[in-house]
Design a protein that fits this description.
Order of helices and strands: EHEHEHEHEHEEEHHEEHEE
Strand content: 15-25%
Helix content: 25-40%
Number of helices: 8
Number of strands: 12
Number of domains: 2
CATH topology of the largest domain: Rossmann fold
CATH architecture of the largest domain: 3-Layer(aba) Sandwich
CATH superfamily of the largest domain: P-loop containing nucleotide triphosphate hydrolases
Radius of gyration: 21 Å
Shape: elongated
Strand order of the largest sheet: 3-2-4-5-1-6-7
CATH class of the largest domain: Alpha Beta
């Protein structure tokens, strides 16, 4: 396949975040190859983080080399809360070399397992703008196949400052750097659900409540231990920072056990738990650990409404 001419670029410095809507395999390859060849022509490196079937398409045209690195996304693709930390790690090698770098990142939208996961993946795209706003300059292209869900394209556009169309990069009119992210409403707990009010000294009883619910759904062993550890972190935050108390709700839906924690506190930093902790960092590791232990984490926090944290753990077949 002959690569397209390098795409013309819009003026920009620092972190650049560009949405590339496409339809079909050929359009994906054409846009991605154009972006890669443009980078190589400018002496830049490229980190490619896309689903495995897309990796095969690109590797047929451009093999792994010093300037093009294909990374394994299997461990983080369905875990939105881990993706910013993964990008920090993938970029670190080139950052240490002082080499300009670009990235291509596409989530497996055709294999999204629930509406909650889709919402968190979109939120991740919005958070990327905050996570890398003050870091080293780099450019991330986000391919998005409109054949999967064209209706969600407007939501994706609100998360990207730039848009690629017809081989050209232009400002995205739907993006507003000052606007807060507009979450979809959290679903109601599925009936039947259980509720437990907790405060200081109730952590052992809280873990017993979770264990009883988990075991009824076949969740035991290592995965239950990981859920206990994550739940303890969240409940401890409620006690320390959320008015000394909280409410736990547990239920199952879509082959997942859901534990929801509600308290009166407010988490001001939307990136809490998303960025990889520094080696010498003191504190601030609890929510990072929670994201590593659970299959999905939803956090909704507002000064006048308090905080809700939902931990999703996949149940055994």
């Amino acid at each position: 396949m002959t690569p397209s001419p390098p795409a013309s670029t819009a003026p920009g410095t620092g972190y650049r975040h560009e949405l590339y809507p496409y339809s079909g395999r050929d359009a994906f390859v054409e846009g991605a190859l154009s972006f890669i060849h443009d980078a190589l022509a400018g002496g830049e490196a490229v980190v490619v983080a896309v689903p495995q079937d897309k990796v095969s398409l690109l590797r047929a045209e451009i093999r792994d080399e010093d300037a093009v690195r294909y990374v394994d996304t299997e461990g983080v693709a369905h875990h939105p809360g881990r993706l910013i930390g993964a990008w920090q790690e993938w970029l670190q090698e080139y950052a240490s070399q002082g080499r300009p770098v670009r990235g291509i990142g596409e989530s497996p939208w055709d294999k999204v397992r629930s509406p909650a996961e889709a919402e968190e993946l979109r939120y991740h795209e919005w958070l990327l703008n905050k996570a890398f706003a003050r870091g080293p300059a780099w450019w991330l292209l986000c391919p998005y196949d409109i054949a999967h869900d064209k209706a969600s394209l407007a939501e994706m556009a609100r998360c990207h400052p730039e848009l690629r169309q017809d081989g050209r990069t232009m400002p995205c009119e739907d993006y507003d750097a000052q606007a807060p992210y507009r979450f979809a409403r959290l679903t109601d707990p599925c009936d039947p659900y259980e509720e437990f009010a907790y405060s200081r000294g109730d952590l052992p009883a809280l873990r017993e409540k979770i264990a009883a619910c988990a075991e009824r759904h076949g969740l035991t062993g290592r995965r239950l231990n990981e859920l206990h550890l994550a739940a303890t972190e969240v409940a401890t935050n409620s006690i320390r920072h959320g008015g000394g108390q909280g409410v736990l709700r547990t239920w199952s839906e879509e082959r997942r056990l859901v534990c929801e924690f509600r308290d009166a506190g407010y988490i001001e930093d939307p990136l809490a738990g998303r960025r990889r902790p520094e080696a010498r960092q003191v504190g601030g590791r609890g929510l990072w650990l929670v994201h590593q232990l659970c299959d999905l984490v939803e956090i909704r926090s507002a000064p006048d409404e308090g905080t809700r944290v939902r931990l999703h753990t996949e149940l055994p077949e």
